[in-house]
Amino acid sequence: MTVDEVMTEVEKDRLFFDESSGGVTLSGGEPMLQAGFAIELLQKLKEKDIHAALDTCGFVRREVLDATLPFTDLYLFDLKLMNEHEHLEYTGVSNTLIQQNLIYLTDQHKQVIIRFPVIPGITDTRKNIDLLKEFLIKLQPRISKICLLPYHSLGKSKYERLKIENKLKNVEDLTADDLQPLKQEFDELHFEVIIGG
User: Fold this and answer.
1) 185-192 contacts, C-beta under 8 A, 24 or more apart
2) Per the confidence metrics, is the pTM higher than 0.90?
3) With helix as H, strand as E and coil as C, how does 112-159 read?
4) How far apart are alpha carbons 89 and 67 in whole angstroms?
5) Which of 5, 59, 60, 190 would bridge 32 by S-S if both were Cys, CB 3.0 to 4.6 A apart?
6) CB-side exposure of 188: number of CA atoms within 13 Å?
7) What is the DSSP letter of 60?
8) Is 178 helix (H, G, I), strand (E, B) or coil?
9) pLDDT digit string, tens, across residues 90-110
């Protein structure tokens, strides 16, 4: 689809956005893998005064991130593993740029919500959670909201269909109840915490 074709579809829901104070979220995968398209779409949304959120892992060149700033109302920013070695092991990329970009967004006074996928035995380790808390405390009050995302295996059939190895096939799904103790930890640090989102 072209940006104009997407905007035609978006405009059909304009009444809902106006009534709910909602808008459009660019998500994926990673929308910044199609940065030119994403930035043009964000710009069109801004021109139409439609709230725009960008869901990103933050692994993006600074000049590309800069290009989103004038047009993005909210960043949904994923943080997974705080240790450099573990982040490389599980994602294949360094987390240095990701952390620098998050700090940069807060320095630009952009609205950011952290999204933390809680994956048993991987991201929910005591070490990782403590490092995450230590990092986010330094960004308060510029960051005050965290979404804890319980791991689910809904994509299992997609891996099978595409004949891609699912490295998490033996990981158990989590429920909202499983995340209550972690929610309480962040509550005690005066973050607004939502399970899911």
Assistant:
1) 185/129, 185/133, 186/133, 186/146, 186/148, 189/133, 189/136, 189/137, 189/140, 190/140, 190/144, 191/136, 191/140, 191/143, 191/144, 191/145, 191/146, 192/144, 192/145, 192/146
2) yes
3) EEEEEEECCCCCCCHHHHHHHHHHHHCCCCCCCEEEEEECCCCCHHHH
4) 30
5) 60
6) 7
7) S
8) helix
9) 999 999 999 999 999 999 999
96-to-11, 60, 102, 137, 176 alpha-carbon distances in Å:
38, 11, 10, 18, 30
- Compute the distance between CA of residue 110 and CA of residue 105 in angstroms, rounded to an integer: 6
Place of tokens 């640090």: 189
What angle in degrees, to the nearest 10, is found between the helix axes of 180-187 and 126-137? 30
Under a CB-based contact definition with an 8 Å cutoff, are residues 25 and 53 in contact? yes
Residue 120 Cα to chain centre, angstroms: 19
E strand spans, 40-90: 51-56, 74-78
The partner residues of 192 in beta bridges, in order of sequence, read 145
pLDDT in tens, 15-60: 998 888 899 999 988 999 999 999 999 999 999 999 999 999 999 9
> E strand or H helix at 192, and its extent?
strand 192-195
Q: Tell me the sheet residues that pair with 23.
A: 51
Helix (H) or strand (E) segment spanning residue 85: helix 84-91
- Judge whether 73 and 38 are in contact, CB under 8 Å: no
